Every structure is written in structure tokens, then in C-alpha cells.
Automatic annotation (TrEMBL):
<feature type="region of interest" description="Disordered">
    <location>
        <begin position="1"/>
        <end position="60"/>
    </location>
</feature>
<feature type="domain" description="CsbD-like">
    <location>
        <begin position="6"/>
        <end position="55"/>
    </location>
</feature>
<protein>
    <submittedName>
        <fullName>CsbD family protein</fullName>
    </submittedName>
</protein>
<feature type="compositionally biased region" description="Basic and acidic residues">
    <location>
        <begin position="27"/>
        <end position="43"/>
    </location>
</feature>
<comment type="similarity">
    <text>Belongs to the UPF0337 (CsbD) family.</text>
</comment>
<dbReference type="InterPro" id="IPR008462">
    <property type="entry name" value="CsbD"/>
</dbReference>
<dbReference type="Pfam" id="PF05532">
    <property type="entry name" value="CsbD"/>
</dbReference>
<dbReference type="InterPro" id="IPR036629">
    <property type="entry name" value="YjbJ_sf"/>
</dbReference>
């Protein structure tokens, strides 16, 4: 169950991060752009965590 949850959270964070980056670029707001980059990386990490949990199964 944790695998799916982490993947969903990861997808959401990546999408929001990409949106923040786009708005930051359009408005020349470097702070918002950097926040978006960090949020996208967080989403990628959550995706990876979900994959690892899936590979390990219920052993964790």
C-alpha cells in the first residue's frame, strides 16, 4: 500500500514543482523557480521510494 501512496505523492509533487517552475520562468521569479525545482526533486525521490518499497514487498 505504501508503494502506491508514495508514487501518487511523487507524481503530485513533480506536477506542482513543474508548474511552479513554469510560473517562475514566466514572471522572472527565481525564488519560485527554485522552489519548483526542489519540489520536483522531492517528487522524484518519492517515486524512487515507492519503487523500492514495491521491490521489497512487505518485508519492510
Amino acid at each position: 500500500m505504501g508503494e502506491l501512496t508514495e508514487k501518487i505523492k511523487g507524481n503530485a509533487n513533480e506536477a506542482v514543482g513543474n508548474s511552479k517552475q513554469a510560473v517562475g520562468k514566466m514572471t522572472d521569479n527565481e525564488r519560485l523557480k527554485r522552489k519548483g525545482e526542489r519540489q520536483e526533486l522531492k517528487g522524484e525521490a518519492q517515486q524512487l521510494k515507492g519503487k523500492v518499497e514495491g521491490a521489497l514487498g512487505n518485508d519492510i
